Amino acid sequence: MAFVAKKNAGPTYESIAREINAGVFKPVYFLMGEESYYIDRLADLLVLKALRPEERDFNLITLYGADVVIDNVLDAAKGFPMGAPRLVVLVKEAQNIKDYERLEYYLKQPQASTILVFCYKNGTIDRRKKGIALLGKVGVLFESKRLYDSQLPSFINAYLASKQRKIEPAALQLLIEYVGADLNRMAAELDKLCLSSPSTALSISVASVAAIIGVSKEYNLYELQDALAQKDVLKAYKIEKYFDGNPKEFPIQRTLPTLFRFFSNLMLAYYSMDKTESGIASWVGVSDWQFRKTYAVAMRNYRAEKVMRIVAEIRRTDARSKGVGSTTISSGELMKELLSFILY
């Protein structure tokens, strides 16, 4: 279920997980990147497959980067298992450790019975550091990248397919709008949806998503986007009024990125070389269903030049909402001005 960029020539989540599930272990795993979901999944899988439950008390050593230095980690890795074939040394918060150059000496002759796992989150290690190049040869150097918005539907569908579930296209879009690209949170919400929806249900519905993740039954960002695509002036202003009355649930800082993403994608749609429906949808990075429902409608209602000016106006509104140029106008007034610019 990992959808990493193709330009990343390193090992993928799937390839690493396949080897672990087959009982093929490397002496060192360096799991790093901005997306913690895959780092956590691989670390958990290594512990699950490398040690039986009764072996973990004496053969699973968990260290935290804020509390140790690299020499502490290497000393632990040089130990021997007790009553088990392997010792697993799991280093959490590994981004707090310095002097990774010293890892080179261990990598030249790693302990055969030890699986050393580094969980390095919220960034990547400098691959130019001495010794880091050895990681990919001796063990596994994996970068967990954040998914693009266009990759989220594939992640959700694959995750649900693993649980023999499906989701309605509209429900999927609503889920993305409200949860975003935080995969740990997304997986938790999907688990809740699977537990709460009857196993006999053909697909998870919009109503289920709204009920489980707390989406307002009145209006939501997804409906505002559709209203603007359709140039439904009355509905757009009704939604804006509702948002203005519920600033904690619908702050302008949450609304503007959604509108910016939509109109930026709409701008791209005009420049697709393939003018077929599926061609434009692929170019923009949305599903055919989403293109038909929203983008195709918007393309009939807005000219490319207008969309370009809308994108610029959303940027300007975002800056003003953060105090640039004006600190007195309310968020509600800013949104009304923006909607007026978009719709007229």
Automatic annotation (TrEMBL):
Which UniProt keywords are listed? DNA replication, DNA-directed DNA polymerase, Nucleotidyltransferase, Transferase
Q: What class of enzyme is it?
A: transferase
UniProt cross-references to InterPro entries, sorted A to Z: DNA_pol3_delta_N, DNA_polIII_delta, P-loop_NTPase
**Enzyme Commission numbers on file:** 2.7.7.7
The GO annotation for biological process reads: DNA-templated DNA replication
User: Is this entry keyworded Transferase?
Assistant: yes
Task: Tell me the first and last residues of the signal peptide.
Answer: none
Please state what the protein is called. Answer: DNA polymerase III, delta subunit
Q: Tell me which Gene3D superfamilies the record gives.
A: 1.10.8.60, 1.20.272.10, P-loop containing nucleotide triphosphate hydrolases (3.40.50.300)
Q: Which GO terms describe its cellular component?
A: DNA polymerase III complex
The record ties this protein, via NCBIfam families, to: holA
Q: Which residues form the DNA polymerase III delta N-terminal domain?
A: 29-142
In terms of Pfam families, this protein maps to: DNA_pol3_delta (PF06144)
Originating species? Alloprevotella tannerae ATCC 51259
Q: Which GO terms describe its molecular function?
A: DNA binding; DNA-directed DNA polymerase activity
